[in-house]
Amino acid sequence: SKVDHKDISSKKILYSVGQSGYQGWKNFRDEITDRERKLFSEKLSSTCKKNKLIVDFKLHPASLQDQVFFYRNLSFNSHSKVLTYESVNRLMGKYGIIVFDMIASRALTYALYHDFEIILYVPNQLPVRTENFQDLESRVHIVRNVLELEKKLDLFSQNKLKHKTSNIKFNEKYFGHLSYEDSIEKAFQRIIG
Fold first, then answer.
1. Neighbours of 122 (CB within 10 A)
2. What is the CA angle 23-24-29, rounded to 5?
3. For residue range 78-132, what is the model confidence (pLDDT) as tens digits?
4. Alpha-helical segments (H) within the chain
5. Are the beta carbons of 4 and 91 closer than 8 angstroms?
6. In the 8-state DSSP scheme, what is residue 94?
């Protein structure tokens, strides 16, 4: 069943940080670089501070040692937290919006299935399937660079960001009436390929 405890009125943001680029056996064309993630994270943090928003950083379990020092420094002198061992899926309901920097993420699919508000960072150079990407754009706020991120967060802070949850056509196409586990696998395969 769908999660119904999300706090959409919350001005808190959860950034589900993707794993470091060299972790795992992935296609490097399909991932952002560690440098891109660092610049994106810095812009996210500074824009949240400017707009008096709180962003918590949920680090990827496979990259804790690589990421913890950077994110602790980034969150210093703010109300942000660096979350290390908590399950990202269990955390999502406490936030008004969830930020991702990886398309190939089961946590993203979980957030889609459970109807959370999402910002997804997809740099221009990443290859995507046009039809599926257009479907994804109908359901999530896609940002292609840090300036687009700043605009979305500015709107979010002013309660002017268009809600993209509860997209019936998207849900029927990618999830249908499957169980959660089957829906996750189906959506993951259709969006990622």
1. 20
2. 85
3. 788 999 989 999 999 999 999 999 888 889 989 998 889 999 998 876 667 677 7
4. 34-50, 64-75, 88-91, 106-113, 130-139, 146-157, 168-174, 180-192
5. no
6. G
